[in-house]
Amino acid sequence: TGVVPEPVYGAQLQDMAVPGVAPEGKVRVEYQPVLVHFKDGTAVELQKPTLQITQLGYGPMHPDTRFSARVAPPMIGLGLLEAIPEEAILANANTGDGVSGRPNRVWDDAQQKTVLGRFGWKAGQPNLNQQNVHAFSGDMGLTTSLRPVDDCTPAQTDCLQAPNGNGPDGEPEVSDNILRLVE
Fold first, then answer.
1. What span, in angstroms and rounded, lies between the C-alpha atoms of 110 and 3?
2. Which SS3 state, helix, strand or coil, does residue 154 take?
3. What are the pLDDT digits (tens) for 107-121?
4. DSSP assignments along 26-77, one per residue
5. What is the 8-class DSSP label of residue 165?
């Protein structure tokens, strides 16, 4: 079903902010040792991360909120993935070999329709451009032609009222030319 954004904090917690806007919260990672035994009897100790969210800037989170840490994937070769025909991806979704994936259908902001997902966590974005647009917005707080407003929820009035980095005529902080550099 995809990510359901937290009503006040959105889909991604921002632990930093521009002057005059409260950070959404702080994240701390603690590790707990876990002893794991292999079939040959070898025991190793691993570290299990536990996330702690503190100093919430806009009140408590919804009680059903779930969260996890993410690491940005490498961008090398992503243009090659975009070049694979949709039919080839769908043909390999379940080949009966015991290892299968499910194609994800996602909203394409530019085409205004649902298409095959290819990029991001669980193929949540349809193309490299939209993946980058959402990363600029969600990860860095930068506007683009597809996301011309800051990533603020209605409860974040200081964020909504803060000046953004758009140009004097409303041009976005990240130009389409910059987006094309990473395609």
1. 20
2. coil
3. 999 999 999 999 988
4. EEEEEEEEEEEE-TTS-EEEEEEEEEEEE--BTBPPPTT-------PPP-TT
5. S
